[in-house]
Amino acid sequence: MENIERIREDFPVTKSKLFLNHSGYSPLPQPVADVMKKYNEDLCCFEVDETKYGLGQEFFAELIGAAKEEIALVPNTSTGLNIAANTLDYSRGSNVVTTDLEYPSVVYPWLKKSLGVNVEYVKNVGGRILVEDIEKVVTDETVAIAVSHVEYVNGFKHDLKALAEIAHEHGAYLIVDGIQALGVIPVDVKKNDVDFLTASCYKWLLGPAGSGYLYVRRELLEELEPPFIGWASVKPEVFDTSEFWDIWRLQLSETASRFEVGAPSFISFVGAATALQLLQKIGIKNIQRRVLDLTEVLLDAVKNLGFKLTTPEDEECRSAIVHFLIANAQEIAEELKHKGIIISARSRGLRVSPHFYNTEEEIEKFISELKAL
Ligand SMILES: Cc1ncc(COP(=O)(O)O)c(C=O)c1O
Fold it and tell me: How many CB atoms sit inside 10 A of residue 2's CB?
């Protein structure tokens, strides 16, 4: 990547640490921290100029190939998934299809007894979820397929288009947790026919916690009643054009803001908007190429050391996450942390997740420290 040294200046973490844990909780780039600081200073003096600070809906929309009107602000991915789960109807005997590789928040919303829906788990085969296995489980009783675009432990990447086709053939929805994909994997919700997609910004999107977005396909907006309703859910004119709020009838917003409830964490979204612009400037395709190259080096080195990978190796289902099995993973992660190398211990192994501003030298340093242990 050209100008990598210049780019790394925007990432103060590179001065003191070898950070390889973007699938966990990412450090803020300097421009993101700066805009949040400025916003706070303006807030202290009651001088926030709303026209200067956006909340990033248009940048998130651009990132996923959607329209701004299809994007709602949510505090995190788990809330976005719960909104999707609680806005759909479940008749007796209906089911939601998911996988055995999911993060809890992708599954828990549907385990709530009062929804009365069965959860069907498609089992992974050597760390992959096969499309044909999903096809076997989805029926006309299926209300939705719910998956993470990229699975959180081993980084397996689903083919969203194939899942959408299966879902729609049976009149079901495709609900996607995008938190481990967005920022490193190009996503187009229109080309892939996704119905719901949600993600926080604190991982690969390099924003602060407290900011997240929910995409709901335009055609669904008006037919879906939000599970929670507050002042933010209604048409702007209900407030703007009247002296009082009209509290005698509910006029839900025609856009995805009908899924918003009350005041968002403005400062988090101000940071997220800057982070999204920063990523778009680099280009998601460039970022993907870069992380695939870095993780290729990592995959080879890990294999050469004799560790068992749980990450599938072929490029079409790979992401920026590499996971391999190792004894005493927790202790090793702790020891590396003392040396300033940040990775995570997950599922009896180590999970390593570089972003575009990491370098091959950093990957080599991680490998040599691992060898030394
Ligand atoms: C796939 C996946 N979904 C959801 C989450 C949690 O997201 P949030 O904190 O935004 O609810 C994580 C966090 O690790 C994750 O890996």
Answer: 7
Ligand 1 contact, 180 CB (< 6 A): yes
List, in sequence order, every residue forming a beta bridge with 216; answer none if it has no partner.
196
Strand partners, 350: 324, 345
**CA–CA distance, 302 with 298 (Å, rounded to integer):** 6
DSSP character string of 143-157: EEEEEESB-TTT--B
Q: Please, what are the domains in the chain? A: 4-20+283-372 (3.90.1150.10), 57-280 (3.40.640.10)
SS3 state of residue 128? strand
What lies within 8 Å, CB to CB, of 102 at 6+ separation is 146, 147, 148, 151, 152, 177
> Would you say the pTM of this structure is higher than 0.70?
yes
Mutate to test the pocket of ligand 1, among 21, 22, 25, 103 (most ligand atoms within 8 A of CB): 103
Token representation of residue 137: 């489980």
Q: Does ligand 1 have an atom closer than 6 angstroms to the CB of 78? A: yes
Strand, coil or helix: what is 214?
strand
pLDDT digits (tens, 9 = 90+) for 229-255: 999 999 988 876 666 788 889 999 999
Q: Residues 64, 214: contact at Cβ < 8 Å? A: no
